[in-house]
Amino acid sequence: MIIGAQSPLSLGGLSSAPGCKGELVVGKSVFLVAGDRSLPQSNLTCFRSDDVGMTWQKLGLVLSDPVPRADVGDGNLLRLPDGDLMVVYRQNHTSGEFQTRPEYGIRVSVSSDGGRTWKVHSTVARHQDDRAEISRGYWAPFLFRPRSGRVQCYYDDEDTPYRNGFHGHQWVEMKTLDPKSGEWEKETTVSRAPLPTDLSRDGMATVVETSPGKLLCVLESVSTSPPTVGDLRSVTSDDDGKTWSWQHGSRPVVYQALGPYHSFCPWLLPGPKRQIFCLFATDEDNQDPHRAGTPANRLKLDIKAVRSEDGGSTWSKPFLVYAGTHHNYLPSGAVLGPGRFLLSWLDFDLGSLFSPAILYQPR
CA-CA distance, 91 to 105, in Å (whole number)? Predict the structure, then answer.
């Protein structure tokens, strides 16, 4: 039985530039990293809920950036085998003294006491532009630990394609953490358009392991033929992320809305019996089309999902999860039990919302 989200719970003043991403369930507790608007500086703060998102306790400060209008966010959490919490985030400086030479970074912090205190762990990627005419940023990092054990970080990268002659393109890159040195290494291009003549705007990666060593990555992309619209595509790896299917021309569409409408920001959730759910935001039902590249807060977006029962080879028709104000974005979720998920998304009108929705209920 498939049902939609019911009675979402507002998180009030929490924000993660702009919304929470990738909450983490540990035992009976849910952790998230979000911005705390009560603080004067751009920040990321850890919160915990012991009642499935009904109430939240503020724990420790992950990051406080003294640079005015610093762009910090995408606080994506992972629990390590020793119990430590690891969070990855973007930390970008693009205004004020950084306006002509923007600085971009993907960084990681860890907590050994359940989120109460945090320390900087490492830098996944960092660079500073020598010119600001073309964006060369890093965005939307995602932490993943396959069964083989080594932590991976996926992220949007505009700098690598720029340095390779693809100005204005964006690829999904991935690095692996060396547990001995604490350094991120073996940079791999996870997704880009196979044909160099096609525009690549690949990002917002989310990953699940469908069988030992086989990874499925679903990402936000753009169509390769007019009209240019945002769509969802997938790439796969059969060797724990060392190589990816785009290199062989395989980057199939998971979902593309009809007409001039878009699909954005996917999030994968593993379900029972090899099922995989993919949450995403789309404007396809709201009869208000906008060109690709329009800021998300100007679009009329609803949260939908598609389901795969064969490890991501094929996908169901979409079903509505939440519409509300039609200003929804950045869906994500965490597994509460077989087929039960805690879902979150950003409502640009109401702030971040949570819903203990059941996407799938076994008969």
Answer: 5
